[in-house]
Write a structure and sequence with these properties.
This protein has 593 residues and is mainly α. 76% of the residues lie in helices and 0% in strands. The protein is built from 26 helices and no strands.
Length: 593
């Protein structure tokens, strides 16, 4: 295959320099990471907020992300991105409520939370199931689409068979992750974030300029009958997008996944110095994730409708190949090297996190919990390194059968649909048990699997539901079924023992409905007052206001700019009130071991 761009010696030098840097970091931090499990998987619980938050956002900035986002714009327009923009609501819950609670738990992994919240056979079953499901199924799907995204970049840029270059990148990522653990991950994430944002801004501005600037791009979209692609909030006349938008903002954010934070997010929070740093890390992550990054990818997607008006063949990567194709057309030597290095950095920043995070589950929550409970920390670090290699092999295997990144996103969302209410209420309501969580997860998995099986057999209407346009309807079905299932299971099974609930309450001091448990614990729980609500609502206003205002500035949409600017300013006031209330309570609560 012929490359779409000529890569010069200067470009190669920049790329190689970055890869060497990653290896050097792994070598320098390897000894420190080997000291203990806490050092290897939690960076010694000593990360400042800006390092932890930047590491979170660098992880979400994978090589697949700009390709998938620009591809969504080509298919559905700007409004298609509400599929992931709806997460702002959950992220603000994480900032003002759950980040301090996670840090107060003092656990090594978020799955270890199961041990302090539940007890009995149900807790063991849930922890074992979640370890295997999260590290082997969930994690493999994520790694599969990340590898696929990087392969599309390599194909469009170098014209190589993807595995030639990906083999080198995966080995390098594996080596520094294996050696330095979370320390290597977060330190390289800092440079990876800077590189990735620099490259995205550079290409976004180049694409906007090539399409005729702000006014020229908007006018050309109008001339070609594509002005609807510019709508940031769809109208009822845009029926499919309107239904999708309502589903995302009213249903998805609280029901899909775990709005309290999970996986690598919880891992970074648990690795911060204290509750204050945990809270600020989550806030910085949300701002960088939703305000700083998206528009540069959106600009490329919009400009590609003008610069690449024809359909892109599936063998070249389909709509998701527009991003690397414009890299080749628009960036000069040197700039192209920085851009390619930035996307390779984005690829590595996600791969290293997924490997380290999943290895922490298999080591701490499976091997240590069920196979060998007493061993020196160095033994567990060795096991962690072995499981890292196994996890990488699984991710590579899944990438071989993944074809479309955005479809993989929606597949994973379907698998996690409906469990969000349980993950929130387990902190707030004493009656939630391990059976509740297990029931929700198994129901979502079963319903989603049946729908996919029927869709692949071309049974109507399931064949439509497994496509991108049918995702909102599939989500409604899974969420509704899951809510009924977990509530029925909750009241048909035994609650958690009173002793465990009292012990948990004393340790974490959660808000919510704890009744006699709180009185017996004899400690004051986290207070949920109006300042907390102002913080949550203000955070939502601040993030969406910043997102809209930046888009209005770049595309010169005055209504977006003015409306977003006002929302942003009002949001800051609410955030300040919320932070004051949250951080004040954090200083009043003793740190747990």
């Amino acid at each position: 295959m012929e490359p779409t761009v000529h890569v010069t010696t200067v470009d190669y030098a920049i790329i190689v320099a970055y890869l060497v840097f990653a290896l050097v970091v792994g070598a320098l931090l390897g000894r420190r990471a080997s000291k203990s499990m806490a050092e290897y998987f939690a960076a010694g619980r000593n990360l400042p907020w800006w390092v932890a938050g930047t590491s979170m956002v660098a992880t979400t900035f994978a090589a697949d992300t700009p390709l998938a986002v620009s591809g969504l714009v080509r298919k559905q327009g700007v409004a298609g991105n509400w599929f992931w923009w709806n997460g702002v609501f959950a992220n603000m819950l994480g900032t003002f409520l759950f980040a301090p609670l996670w840090r107060r738990c003092g656990v090594l992994t978020d799955l270890e939370f199961i041990r302090i919240r539940y007890d009995g056979r149900a807790a063991d079953l849930l922890r074992g199931f979640r370890v295997l499901y999260s590290s082997l199924v969930y994690n493999s799907i994520v790694m599969g689409w990340v590898i696929l995204g990087a392969s599309k970049i390599v194909r469009a840029t170098f014209g190589w068979e993807p595995w030639e270059t990906l083999g080198v990148l995966i080995v390098i990522t594996f080596v520094y992750t294996l050696s330095a653990g979370l320390w290597g991950v977060v330190m390289t994430d800092l440079l990876q974030f800077v590189l990735a944002v620099t490259g995205a801004v550079w290409l976004g501005i180049a694409a906007l300029s090539a399409a005729g600037g702000s006014t020229g791009l908007v006018n050309q979209l109008a001339e070609r009958g594509l002005l609807e692609r510019l709508a940031i909030i769809p109208t009822p006349e845009m029926r499919d997008l309107w239904i999708a938008f309502l589903t995302y903002v009213l249903l998805q954010w609280w029901s899909v996944g775990r709005p309290d934070g999970e996986g690598y997010i919880a891992q970074r929070i648990l690795s911060t110095r204290d509750e204050r740093h945990a809270t600020l890390a989550f806030l910085w992550f949300a701002f960088a994730h939703y305000v700083i990054r998206p528009w540069w990818w959106l600009l490329v997607g919009l400009a590609s409708l003008i610069l690449i008006p024809e359909a892109i063949p599936a063998k070249l990567g389909g709509d998701e190949a527009a991003y690397p194709m414009l890299m080749g057309r628009l960036l000069p030597a040197g700039a192209l090297g920085i851009m390619v290095a930035s996307l390779l950095a984005a690829f590595m920043s996600t791969m290293d996190t997924q490997m380290n995070w999943a290895a922490s589950y298999l080591t701490n929550d499976f091997y240590r919990a069920y196979i060998r409970k007493e061993a020196p920390d160095r033994h567990y670090v060795l096991v962690g390194r072995i499981t890292t290699a196994f996890i990488l092999a699984l991710g590579v295997g899944v990438s071989l059968i993944t074809e479309d990144i955005s479809k993989a996103w929606m597949l994973l969302a379907g698998l996690n649909a409906g469990i969000g209410t349980v993950s929130v209420l387990r902190w707030l309501w004493w009656r939630v048990s391990a059976w509740s969580e297990l029931g929700a997860m198994l129901t979502a998995l079963a319903v989603n699997s049946v729908m996919y099986a029927m869709g692949w057999m071309k049974v109507s209407p399931f064949d439509m539901l497994i496509e991108t346009a049918g995702f909102p309807y599939r989500l409604m079905i899974i969420v509704g079924t899951t809510q009924v299932a977990w509530l029925v299971i909750t009241f048909l099974t035994e609650p958690v023992s009173r002793e465990r609930l009292v012990e948990f309450y004393r340790r974490v001091r959660p808000p919510g409905w704890w009744g006699d448990i709180a009185r017996e614990a004899g400690v004051e729980g986290t207070r949920m007052g109006w300042r907390w609500l102002f913080g949550w609502f203000g955070g939502v206003l601040m993030i969406y206001g910043g997102l809209f205002a930046l888009g209005g500035l770049l595309l010169w949409q005055v209504d977006w700019l003015l409306g977003g600017g006002v929302a942003f300013a009002l949001g800051i006031v609410g955030v300040r009130l919320g932070l004051k209330a949250t951080l004040q309570q954090a200083t009043e609560v003793p740190q747990q071991a």
